[in-house]
Amino acid sequence: MATDRAAKLVAGLRRAHLHLAVAESLTGGQLCATIVEVPGASDVLRGGVCTYAPDTKVEILGVSAELIAERGTVNQEVAQQLAAGARRLFGSEVALATTGVAGPGPAEGHPAGTVYVAIDAPGHQTWTAHQFAGDRQQVRNQSVEAALRLLEDYLAKHYNADDE
Questions:
Q1: CA distances to 31, 118, 125 from 99, in Å
Q2: What are 51-88's pLDDT values in tens digits?
Q3: Where does the record place the CinA C-terminal domain (predicted)?
Q4: What is the 3-state composition of the chain as percent helix, strand, coil, each rounded to the nearest 5?
């Protein structure tokens, strides 16, 4: 299902003349891989970065070190800063980001399945919070779907480019 949604999103991005970047933590590159499974993804995808360690989030994507020190990496502000950093890094019009706890156990005081996804675009920054159930891979799969839905909602609202 993710690949079908990704194919529609690639087509929508192409029609809207938009480029996409991704920043991933708990999904470990799975979001970017889902997008690149679509033939023609190179027309719209500028790049992706997997910043798993907190220091790489700061050094590569410009996430606030103070924020991470105070609140950890599992929160909406980090997700938003990851997306903004990816958009800057790759020079794209739109960026998606994922952060959270895939499991199997808790991390940073959050239970497994706690996930934040964010989107950053000119004049549009938003995030969603989720508590997914399932094993580690199921949480990661659901996180990819949530990120794709966030992009789908953005395109539908701003470009009417979510179908076909």
A1: 12, 9, 16
A2: 999 999 999 999 999 999 999 999 999 999 999 999 99
A3: 5-155
A4: 50, 20, 30
Q: Return d(Cα 63, Cα 43) in angstroms, integer.
A: 28
Q: How many CA atoms lie within 13 A of 144 on its CB side?
A: 20
pTM over 0.90: yes
pLDDT at residue 2 in the model: 85
* CA-closest candidate to residue 4, choices 149, 134, 160, 118: 149
Q: Which residues 6+ apart lie within 8 Å of 141 measured at CB?
A: 2, 30
Between CA 142 and CA 122, with CA 34 as vertex, the angle to 5 degrees is 85
Tell me, what amino acid is at 116?
A: Y
